[in-house]
């Protein structure tokens, strides 16, 4: 599967041929470039507001900044509240009603991984780059989305278009249950022909990329109960092997039997002993045990990522089979958490990526190739992959996302806005 997918991704690099932009498209490019200083100012305005997912006031404040911009472009906006017990700010939705061309859904998010107590500087410019909270993931992409629409508005190309926008307020720590948190997005996607998501553009091997396939992201918990007894009886039929040996057997069997392309199942934490505890809220655990006592308790938590639903179903079934084959004196259970669904590669996605690549080439910005899904994590676009043709990575280029050194290349805002404006223009023509 991996060999065929990589061949298809490589082919996209050669599908775009240089051509002259149309006269309206040339005006689009000029409109984007004229606004580059103001685009950077808009980015700074949004970044200087802390909007860690759990800082709901900050998330709403960033939403208000972007809401003003979208309403000025003729979009009707609304704020979707989440249930109070979800402890999430909600989502900003904007709609441009029309009847011309394909219907487009544009995705961004308002929250960042930097919570209110973060010591990371909000905004710190150094020459042609900016460091700060969420500059790359993904306020830079949000600004690119808005500036592309502004350019379209400036030449009258928004007239009659059917465009929906959703800025989620909890992409970095999705509210639970996800079925509720993402229900509004799914509803919009079911009406859309294409979904364009503005997560960061990954610059890989000297070329800008976009994603038409992304792996799932979910979790699993392994719990084992052993027979506590004196260590002198370990490995006997009466005393058994204990919880730790059984847990180790299962984890090692995963490693030996499940390795395949685009599948990972990282073990993030393990606790074992006579008594153990673990808190999901703090991601911390404790264990008590003595060397002369066979362990009674074992717990391990990890994540699971796969590329297609079929791969996921097969792997989870095999993991359960491995877990069920317990050593004497032990009983294990394996459970799976709610997950980001996979976004498998499709022919329609490849055609959309080729259109993006051609828009980039025609604008003189060089090729855009599809990124190997093994090189990217999960994102909101995956929740809508089953209902519409999607592509991600249309945002800004930077480095160090989710770290103290997260930064953004300032010039990538203009590049991204040009590409997005030309692509949206072409998709929304009758």
Outline the structure in words.
- With 430 residues, the chain is α+β, with helices and mostly antiparallel strands.
- It has 2 domains: 8-214 and 341-427, Zn peptidases (Aminopeptidase, 3-Layer(aba) Sandwich); 218-336, Alpha-Beta Plaits (2-Layer Sandwich), CATH 3.30.70.360.
- The chain has helices spanning 2-12, 23-34, 36-47, 56-72, 135-154, 178-181, 183-189, 242-257, 309-324, 347-362, 411-427; strands spanning 76-80, 91-96, 100-109, 123-126, 129-132, 161-168, 194-197, 203-204, 207-210, 218-226, 267-273, 275-279, 284-288, 297-304, 330-336, 368-370, 389-391, 398-399, 407-409.
- Strands 1-2-6-3-7-17 form a 6-stranded mixed β-sheet, with helices on both faces. Strands 4-5-19-18 form a 4-stranded antiparallel β-sheet. A 4-stranded antiparallel β-sheet has the order 11-14-10-15, covered by helices on one side.
- Helix 2 (23-34) packs across helix 5.
- The longest helix has 20 residues, at 135-154.
- 49% of the residues are buried.
CATH-scheme architecture of the largest domain? 3-Layer(aba) Sandwich
**Secondary-structure content class:** alpha+beta
Number of helical elements: 11
**DSSP helix fraction:** 25-40%
Q: Which features would summarize this protein structure in a list?
A:
single chain, about 425 residues, alpha+beta, Aminopeptidase, Alpha-Beta Plaits, 2 domains, 6-stranded mixed sheet, 4-stranded antiparallel sheet, about 35% helix, elongated
